[in-house]
Structure formats: C-alpha cells, structure tokens
Design a protein that fits this description.
Chain lengths: 224, 446
C-alpha cells in the first residue's frame, strides 16, 4: 500500500507518516502541488492524503483536475477547515472522505483502510477484523485460523460489515444484499441472518462484535 | 416590531402650541384694532346696533316688533312696525318704501339712538322703527362682539385650522425620511451587519444624518468582520499545532499522565471547533434552502457517533417518526444533532442510552437518561459559555448556544423538558410547511 501525503507542516507530516508507517503503510510525503505532479508521474499511489491549504494553491483544484481526467485514486482530505460548507465542497469536488484536523491516528488509519477496502480499490481481497479473516475471492471465513462454515447469506452480510469495520452499515444496504440473493425475503430476514451470524461467530470464539444500531443499521466492532 | 418608549412632545403638539400662541397674539391685536375703530366712530356703532336688533326680527318670522327686548343695559327701549303705505293712504304709489335711517342725539346724561330699518319677512318688506337711550357702553357690547366674530374670529379660525393642517402635513412629509430611517434602524440586526439605511434624496439635513449613521454602521461592520475573521483564523491556525500535539502524545509511552493530556487536548479541540461553529452560526452565511429529510441526518449522526458510544459502552438509538421534511442546511442541522448528542454524553451518567429521533413533523429531538435540568437553570442553558458547574472542565458551555443559533438561523426554536422519571428531552422545531421550491433563501427576520 503506497500512500502519498501532501501536507505543508513538516512536523505534522512527519508524525502522520511515522504513525501510518507503523501501521504498515508505505508513505511518501511532499509539500506542494507541483511535487505531487512529479511524484505521481513516477509512482502509482493507492491513496492520497491531501491538505487543502498548500503553499502553491488549493488542494481542491488537484481533486477536481484528477476527477476530470477520470483518475479514481481515492483521496482523503485532511484539513483545518471543518466549517459548515467545507465538507460538502470537498466531497462535491470528488474527494472520497474528509477528515478534519485535529484527529487521532487510529481514526486516520481506519479511514485509510476503509477507502482502500472499497470495491475497485487495490487492497487485497482479504478482509480482517480482530481474529476474523475473510477472503472475498474464495469466500472463505476463518476465525483464529480455523475455517468456519456459514451460509452464503451470512457470508455476504459479514463481508459488508467487514468492509466497513467500525462504521455503521445502514439497513437498506444490508437488505439489498439479501434481496439480491433471493426473491422473497421476509421482513425480519435481516434480523434473523444477523442473529445466526452472531451465534456462529460466538461459537467460533470470534472477538469481534456485531452491534445493532437501533433505527439505523448494524456495525461490526473490533475488540477494544 | 416592538414599540419603543418615545420621549418628548409630538410634532403635532409642538406645532399646535406655537400656532395657538401666534394666533392669540394676532387676535389680541386684532380685537384691539376693532374696538379702537368702533369706539372712535360712535355713529357707526349706533347704526350697527339698530341693524343687529332688526336682524333678530328677520330671523324670527312670528315675532312682532313690540316684543323685541332691545340690547341689554339700555335705559329705555321701544320698537314698533311702520307701514309706509298706511302712513300715507292717499299716496298714489301704495308700494312706496322708507329709507333706512339712524339718528344719534346727545341728551343730558345719555345718548338716544333712533332709526328705521327695512326687514324682509316671508318675502314681503316690513319697516321697523326703534329707539333706545343708553348711558353706558353696555348696550353696544353685542354689537362689538358681533363685529369681533365677523371680523376677527371668522377669518382667523379657518386660517388657523388650515395653517395647522398644512404645517402638520408639511412637517410630516419633511420628516418622512426620518421615520423611514427609524424603521430601518429598528430592523437592523447585529447578526447581519451588511444592511444599510436608505439615503433619502431630501432634505439634506436628514440625508446627512442617515449617511453619518451608515458610516458608523460601516465602521462597526468592519470591526465585526475583523473580529470574526480573527476568531475563525485563530481557530484554523490552532488546529495544526493541536494535531501535532495530539499525534505526538499518541507516540508517547502509555501512562496516566498521557491519558490526562490526551483528554485535555481533546477538550481543547472541541472548544476550537465550537468557537468556529459559533462564529459561523453568528454570521449566518449559509443557505437554508435545501429540502432535507431530518431522518437522514439523524441516521448519519447516529452512525457517526456510534463508535464513540461503543467505546463509552453506551447505546445510541434512532427513531424515525416520519414526515420530517424541512428546508434547511444539512451540515448545520447535523451540527445541531451533534451538539445535542455531545451534551447528552456529557450530562447523562454512566452507560445510559441516548435516544435520537426525527419527526413526527418538522422536528428533531435528543433524549438522555441523566439527571435532567433543574428549573433554575432552564433560562441559562442556551447562553454561550454558561456552565452548571464551573469546576468541571469538560466543556466550555458553547454546545447548546450553537444549537440555539443554528436553529434560529432556520427560523426554528429549541425547547427542553424534563421527562418523568429521569432525563432531559431537547427538541428543535423547524418551520412548519414545506416551501414550494427549494430556493427559499434566508430572509432578514423582521
């Protein structure tokens, strides 16, 4: 995983870079939009971490020009501007996520992972959380290294949750994944599937938790 | 608009007072002139006296001349009808007439006035002979009064009334720009300092005043802009060093000391964010014209805050009670929710759940299971920087005032009630009724 960090505060940049490197990411760092241009000609990056206020221009112009050229490299904006319209403007320009300074490293890491896990992103097909491991190409589910048997429906559900570990997955998204598999789904089919998946994970001594977020959806948490 | 206490007499009163004084002086002069004129011409006065008496007969068709009482204060008085034709039956022209005449004679102690007057009653002429003796001015008083009425009061009173009306209208018209300016100043809003008064083309004096007020407003506006941009820039500039501190702390070996520092930094972060929010809410520079479903935003906030709730072992619930469509600004409404949920996290203890909802209708609410809010604090909780317990340093007390400002920017209201059992329920009501189209811009509250 090769990330490009574009940030003009040297001290902040080195902290972010060190933190991400500790988490196993390869991070290049530059300070200006010009350098970004040069570096991107040499290296294919999997994710851009972009500060908006740069010495030689506005980071948003880079986002816009990349999207115009149909470059879909994920972009995470990291900025001190967290005001009412800034997030919307950033996402409208084509950024994939928006993180307001100051932030904690785990949050940055989880957002990076989430962006890299997105379908189309080039992260490997293996998703993991806690002692749960899932290979999305072979559809194999392992807990503590042991293969666990589960129905296609449950596997599908788990994949959605794993792709957004720590983030709430809305009910409609999960329901759609069930509908896509079968024509007739009873109103509480989702609850039933989640409940079976929970039981199965518990039996296998998985240390992840699937929480119900009443009125919104479900979320999978890694052990604290 | 609120009616304010006004001081000083009204324009109408001032004008009326001045005109009355002016008229009084004029009337006194006029009266003096009339009285002087007649007393210097006693013949004319006697003539007028008889004419006045005769006119009483003319006004009452059935009164016979003998019944005339004469002027008050006369020593003697007599009157009778005179018939010129009967007086001279042999006269060939029976329709002959008498001339009016007056005679004034000086007696030993008095004046005698006699004469004939022609009067017209029921279409036919009559003649009346009158004679009186007077030894004082008294019998003349009605005549003088009559003269005053016709020569002083009749011309002056309408003139006075007309002048008053004209003056009041003219002054009102001239002062109209001042009233306009007053209304506009009344509508000025400290939150929206870009409004200026309309400069009237005339009169020059009012124009000068209005322009001076506008210049003062401009200076105030400049100061406000500087202050706000300073707050905003300061907050932005603080964020990078705060990030550095926060990330550096994470790299330190774990200890109680580190945890404490991390907590301090996170409170500082929150404060900086809230200062920015408040600055932004104050300037109200956002468009509340997007049609939104409050439930969508409610689900977002619950999704976004679930990880935090999870690490605090708390549960966040969301309920959609339906038909919660409003015209607003999505991020602003998100901040309203966010600050309410933050507030619930801070004030409800332990692992109690927090319930977030949207609807029914254009409203959102956040309910906690904390101690609720005591009556005495209800009026304070929405004030910026107010905190129940200043010794606690878990917040600067900006959250609820941000909620209030943002709700007001949507023409909404915030209310809070203590729930039976325990907990507080904060509700934000948005404007009823969906706008026809999505281009409802913010209007200046009047």
């Amino acid at each position: 995983m090769r990330l490009l960090l574009i940030e003009d505060s040297k001290r902040l940049a080195s902290l972010i870079r060190d933190g991400l490197q500790d988490q196993g990411f390869a991070v290049d760092w530059c300070e200006t939009l010009n350098e970004v241009k040069l570096l991107r000609q040499l290296v294919q990056y999997d994710l851009l971490l972009l500060d908006l206020g740069l010495p030689d221009g506005d980071g948003l112009s880079l986002v816009r020009s990349m999207r115009r050229r149909e470059d879909t490299t994920p972009i995470l904006i990291i900025t001190a501007h967290g005001e009412l319209d800034d997030r919307v403007v950033g996402l409208d320009a084509g950024a994939d996520d928006y993180l307001c300074k100051p932030f904690q490293l785990p949050e940055l890491v989880s957002r990076c992972r989430a962006l890299l896990r997105r379908p189309g992103a080039s992260l490997s097909t293996v998703l993991s959380a806690g002692n749960v491991l899932f290979d999305s190409s072979t559809r194999a589910l392992l807990v503590s290294g042991n293969l666990v048997d589960a129905t296609a429906r449950e596997i599908n559900l788990l994949e959605h949750l794993l792709r957004r570990t720590g983030q709430v997955v809305p009910r409609p998204v999960l329901e759609n994944s069930l509908y896509s598999m079968e024509n007739a789904v009873t109103p509480n089919a989702l609850e039933a599937s989640v409940s079976r998946l929970r039981k199965r994970l518990k039996m296998a001594a998985a240390n992840v938790q699937i929480r119900t977020v009443h009125g919104v959806g479900y979320v999978l948490f890694e052990p604290k | 608009m609120k009616k304010h206490e006004t001081a000083g007499p009204t324009l109408l009163r001032q004008l009326t007072y001045r005109l009355a004084v002016f008229t009084l002086i004029f009337a006194i002069l006029d009266v003096g002139l009339v009285v002087w004129t007649y007393t210097s011409q006693p013949e004319a006065l006697g003539e007028q006296l008889l004419t006045l008496e005769a006119s009483k007969l003319e006004r009452s068709p059935f009164l016979s001349p003998d019944e005339l009482t004469g002027p008050p204060g006369a020593r003697s008085w007599s009157a009778r009808a005179v018939y010129p034709a009967r007086a001279n039956p042999d006269h060939p022209n029976r329709s002959g007439s008498l001339m009016d005449w007056t005679r004034r004679e000086r007696l030993e102690h008095s004046i005698r006035i006699s004469g004939v007057r022609r009067i017209e009653r029921g279409g036919s002429p009559e003649w009346v002979w009158m004679e009186l003796e007077a030894d004082s001015i008294r019998p003349y008083i009605p005549v003088i009064l009559n003269e005053l009425l016709t020569h002083v009061a009749l011309p002056l009173v309408p003139l006075l009334a007309l002048m008053l009306i004209f003056n009041v209208l003219a002054a009102r018209r001239i002062l109209q720009p001042l009233r306009q300016a007053e209304r506009e100043i009344e509508r000025l809003d400290a939150e929206k300092m870009t409004t200026r008064l309309t400069e009237p083309s005339a009169p020059r004096e009012v124009n000068a005043l209005v322009r001076a007020v506008n210049r003062a407003l401009q200076r105030l506006d400049d100061t406000m802009v500087r202050l706000r941009s300073f707050t905003s820039n300061a907050a932005h500039e603080l964020r990078t060093p705060l990030s550095i501190i926060q990330l550096s702390l994470e790299r330190l070996p774990e200890s109680d000391h580190r945890t404490e520092l991390q907590l301090d930094v996170s409170q500082l972060n929150r404060l900086v964010g809230q200062m920015l929010d408040l600055t932004r809410a104050d300037t109200m520079e956002f468009d509340t014209g997007t049609i939104l479903d409050l439930a969508d935003i409610g689900r977002d906030i619950v999704s976004d805050m679930t990880p935090m709730a999870y690490s605090a072992n708390r549960e966040l619930h969301f309920d959609d009670f339906g038909s919660a469509m409003v015209s607003g600004h999505a991020e602003a409404i998100y901040r309203i929710y966010r600050n309410l949920v933050d507030n619930a996290f801070l004030h409800a203890p332990g692992e109690s759940p927090i319930e977030v909802s949207a609807g029914p209708g254009p409203q959102i609410s956040v309910r906690d299971y904390g101690p609720g809010i005591c009556e005495a604090d209800l009026s304070n909780i929405f004030e910026p920087l107010w905190r129940k317990d200043r010794r606690r340093n878990d917040g600067a007390g900006l959250g609820l005032s941000i909620v209030k400002r943002l709700a007001e920017a949507h023409h909404g209201t915030v209310s809070v009630q203590n729930m039976n059992g325990s907990g507080a329920l904060f509700t934000v009501h948005f404007q009823e009724g969906m706008p026809e189209s999505g281009d409802l811009k913010q209007t200046l509250p009047s």
